[in-house]
Specification:
about 140 residues; mainly alpha; two-stranded antiparallel sheet
Length: about 140
């Protein structure tokens, strides 16, 4: 007896007869296949290179980064900064003094990726609006 036979899989936990299922059954297990306008919209999103080379990238990056810090990391953010930015875009500390930190410089890893996705979405919507394709 192998060590795997000593502890059999509980009933109903895993379907071992996947090859016997029809295409329709397999598709229903996988959930809805992405199709239609929402799928096409995802394929039309800008590449990261296009996003970073866009003339409004820096402005929207700082805007979305500030929004992220205020809403998703507010305890940490407000313990160090007032939530306002100077005319040059630098964060103000709690005493109202300009720091040498841009909002985007306070993001790391997953937070930065999330903000870049929001920037890409905002730039894509802005480009569609400029073309006359308002949503």
């Amino acid at each position: 007896m192998s060590k795997f036979e000593q502890f059999p899989e509980p009933e109903g936990r895993r379907d071992t007869n996947m090859e016997e299922k029809s295409v329709e059954e397999l598709e229903s297990l996988a959930g809805p296949y992405p199709s239609g306008p929402e799928y096409a919209e995802k394929e039309e999103k800008m590449s990261i290179e296009d996003v970073k080379s866009h003339p409004n990238f820096d402005e929207i990056l700082q805007e979305k980064a500030l929004e992220y810090l205020k809403n998703k990391d507010s305890d940490w953010f407000y313990s160090r900064f007032s939530g306002e930015v100077s005319s040059e875009g630098y964060l103000l500390d709690n005493d109202g003094n300009e720091t040498n930190w841009l909002p985007s410089q306070n993001l790391g890893g997953p937070a930065y990726v999330e903000v870049i996705k929001k920037v890409r979405d905002a730039l894509g919507k802005k480009d569609h609006a400029e073309e006359g394709n308002t949503e």
